[in-house]
What does this fold into?
Amino acid sequence: MDPHCVDICPLVADEFTAAYHDLGPAAAQVVFAAVNVNPYYPGVAAVAQFSREHQLTAIPGWHFFTGPVPQLQAIWRAHNIEVQARGPDADVIHSSDIYFIDPQGRERYLAAPMAEYTKSGNAYLPAGQLAAWGRGIALVARQLTR
It folds into this structure.
């Protein structure tokens, strides 16, 4: 996630929140985590503000990882996260993959949200598709907690 994104990242945040609510009691066994993809805003304050603004802090198992840019770049490489950051005021173009990791730490599934674009170039997910992604995340996460 990009803590300065006003496009797809808030939609993914909504998916996480929907999934958390759909999980019900199983939510206590699930960790939701994101990695900062904005090298121009690697500070804790930026990711904390994004987390608060998008109600992610209401998820007890929420973590938004950030750190020095070289460490972020190592994480991006390790997880095949593509990042194109053209400047501090430009949109950061990045992959939006969701990894499902089981309790033993093994990557079990990989999902990639599909986004459509408006005529102005903004990404969006229709409400029905957004709700379906949240339910899908919850279903897979619940399966891994068993």
